[in-house]
Design goal:
By secondary structure, this protein is of the alpha+beta class. It is built from two helices and 13 strands, in the order αβββββββββββββα. The chain binds calcium ion (2 copies).
Amino acid sequence: MKFANGFLVYCLILLISTMATAADKPAKHPKTGEPLVIDVLRGTPKIDGKLDDWMLDLLTPAVLDTKEQIFNGAGSWKNPTDSSGKFYVLWDDDNIYMASVMKDDKLSMQKDGSGIWNADCIEIFLSTTKATPPHAEHYQWGFNPDNKIWNWCNMDGNGSREPDYLKIESTKTGDGYICEVALEYDNVKSLRKDFKAGKAMGFHPVFDDADDGADRDLQMTWTGREAHDQSQGFGQIIFSDEAMAVSAKQKLSVFWSLIKTQQ
Ligand SMILES: [Ca+2]
Ligand SMILES: [Ca+2]
């Protein structure tokens, strides 16, 4: 009987750990099948709508630029010049920073408040790494190139309002726009313990595109699924202890040692 009990406990542990592993896996890219994971280096950019303080070449962005990632409105999407985006992330002791570099050939932001999703808009989700049904374990913020901001989903029950803790500065470029954002993560209470080096967090960047001043024409998401659809997990960010500046220095020293070797 003792053996049977032990075996039962063993099976239970195995089952739970299998479930946890399955749930912890990031979603896959709908076209390439690659896992959607990016590392987040340490850095403190100034929120001014300029990305000269981001070493973009050293960072891996989440990229949204294929028709397979269109959740709705595929018929109205022409190519990446019409609308596509790269989403870079950094962090420090207090904030998580996001630089969204968007291509968008026609800007249209005639919506306000909770309706900003229905025009040109970026939506960012942070979540647990669990695969759970929609609207379950995530936060959802939105912002646009007119610096309008909103928080819809909120795991602390504090959503459906303009968040006073989200800083944004945007720049309209010739072929789209840039949004530089800082989010103080003391305001992300339910995930606060996961802002730690080595930890993974669910991440789902999404954009909405409108062209003619009316409603949204299309939505593209990192996973290709509906923005809130966490049922198969989102992509993930992994917080690294490596500083963006140190990483740059290392790259430079590798470069010089290569030059030396070649001499
Ligand atoms: Ca900046
Ligand atoms: Ca647009």
